[in-house]
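Raw record, unedited: CD63 antigen
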Amino acid sequence: MAEEIDVGMKCIKYMLFVANFMFVMIGFLLISIGSTIKAIYGDFETFMEAHYFSPATLAVAIGVIIFFVALFGCVGAIKESTCLINLFAFFLTLLLILEIAAAVAAYVMRGQIEETIRKKMEYSIEDYYVDVYDRKAWNFAQSRMLGIIFAWMLAKAVRRLKTQELIDQDQNRQRIYEQLARGKDENPTPVLYTPTFSEA
């Protein structure tokens, strides 16, 4: 009986370790994605107000928090430390509350953020020839948008061609059915009369 309990506890310990290790990897992934986005799309921060967090910075911050919280869980599971497991549970609960609060705040402020970005873009386009940072941001945005617009137009053209092909096929099919229907009415197929056994 004691061996079964021991095996069960080891199983729980390693399952907790594996789950926390996955969270460590997710935290590391968020850090790398956030830093990559910040490096590539850093020029768009010109259009954001200073008091708004950049999504890339937020991803890095969440990644760091998840990384350390999951590290508590990993070490606590391996060392079988009740203190570390309790710390892990506390920080995980706190992280969940913060994520819910961030999601609610983002949902509530989405209209305000959109309006702020629009105004900031309008102001920065006026300083295009004066401010180097605004010029770099607009050049970068336009180069990215040009590619996006081209891809959108290409997809729309392909969709239009495919739709036209389907319409043509449907019209051809309809024309064939109409010809067959007209052909049956104009030239009815002759029916041979065969007498029944009683008539013969």
